[in-house]
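ARCHIVE CARD
Drawer: 12
Card no.: 0347
Subject: one protein chain, sequence and derived structure
Cross-reference: see card 0346
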Amino acid sequence: MGGYDTHQNQNGDFVALCDKLGNALKAFNDTTTALGVHDNVLLATNSDFTRTLTPNGDDPTSSGSDHG
């Protein structure tokens, strides 16, 4: 799953990506629970960079956040 390098439209694109990821994680959790292996599964994530929290402009449709 990719597309997280969002330079603009954070409130639209990033929120939609987080919703998609949340749904996938719920499905994964529900499946491991149904299989009875939930207590034997470790899920880890990793990111190679961060983003600043301060937008780099005033227009929410064209501004984004810079690499931290």
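Annotation on reverse: The chain has one domain: 1-68. The chain has one helix and no strands.
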